[in-house]
Write a structure and sequence with these properties.
It is a single chain. This protein has about 150 residues and is mostly helical. The chain has a domain of about 45 residues. About 90% of the residues lie in helices and about 0% in strands. It is elongated.
């Protein structure tokens, strides 16, 4: 059983290694083709006059810069889309926070009166009884919140 496990792991690693080698071979072949193209172009440019060589080099540099510019534009577009998405998410979260804060702030008027009387009672009782407090069971979460803040 242990040998089978090791054998299976070895086969997995061998397969992964073969896949990596294949990817590297493809990259190497693509690089060889590119290098051969550049070599051919270089040999052709050597046969040109100095002025034509300079013009050709200038064209190559313009092409390279244009491609680089297009890549940068594509990256910029992706970043702008991501920024818009993040701004939308931020607005949604801000709205949720505002809604939550509003729901916390909206307490029925009768309860507000009771809240004030509880706060006043707490202040008075602290003086006389040093910590004893009377409250309704339904006001316990509100009292705990007030004690924490």
């Amino acid at each position: 059983s242990f040998l089978r496990l090791l054998e299976a792991q070895l086969q997995d690693e061998r397969r992964e290694h073969e896949e990596e080698v294949e990817v590297l071979r493809k990259e190497m072949n693509a690089m060889k083709e590119e290098m051969e193209k550049q070599q051919q172009t270089f040999l052709q440019t050597l046969q040109l006059s100095p002025e034509a060589q300079w013009n050709f080099g200038l064209q190559q540099e313009i092409t390279r810069l244009t491609n680089e510019n297009l890549d940068l534009k594509e990256l910029l577009e992706k970043l702008e889309k991501n920024e818009k998405k993040l701004k939308k998410q931020l607005k949604i979260y801000m709205k949720k926070v505002q809604d939550f804060e509003a729901s916390q702030a909206v307490v029925p008027e009768g309860r507000r009166q009771h809240e004030r009387s509880v706060q006043v009672a707490v202040q008075r009782k602290e003086k006389h009884f040093q910590g004893m407090l009377e409250y309704c069971k339904e006001d316990e979460p509100l009292l705990i919140r007030n004690l924490i803040t």
